[in-house]
Specification:
With 99 residues, the chain is mainly α. The chain contains 6 helices and no strands. The protein has 2 domains: 52 residues, no CATH class; 41 residues, no CATH class.
Length: 99
């Protein structure tokens, strides 16, 4: 942790505490992207390895793909489908308000 404190600096100067890096490691805190990039460089890693896999590269199940194809055929966006489905779950039957 001491080496990381020396290598990864705050933009306004100075370094982060060992406790900060410990919280990051345990997932109890998050940091700006530049901190993760500096950490990856200090550890000799590709930043993507440190940050984890991109959701776009996760496998899609056959059922998920089938659902998306049906929604495309019906010209319904996934968010519209969620609104329609959740309207039935509401006690008053009113559609959920979109954000």
């Amino acid at each position: 942790m001491e080496k990381l404190r020396e290598v990864v600096e705050k933009p306004e100067g100075g370094g982060y505490s060992g406790g900060y890096f410990s919280r990051l490691e345990r997932g109890w805190a998050s940091a700006p992207l530049y901190v993760y990039i500096a950490l990856a460089e200090a550890l000799g890693l590709v930043p993507g390895r440190l940050l984890g896999p991109d959701d776009a590269h996760k496998p899609v199940s056959e059922a998920e793909m089938r659902l998306l194809n049906v929604l495309r055929e019906l010209s319904i966006s996934p968010s519209e489908a969620i609104v329609v489905l959740t309207a039935d779950a509401r006690p008053d039957g009113a559609p959920a308000q979109s954000m």
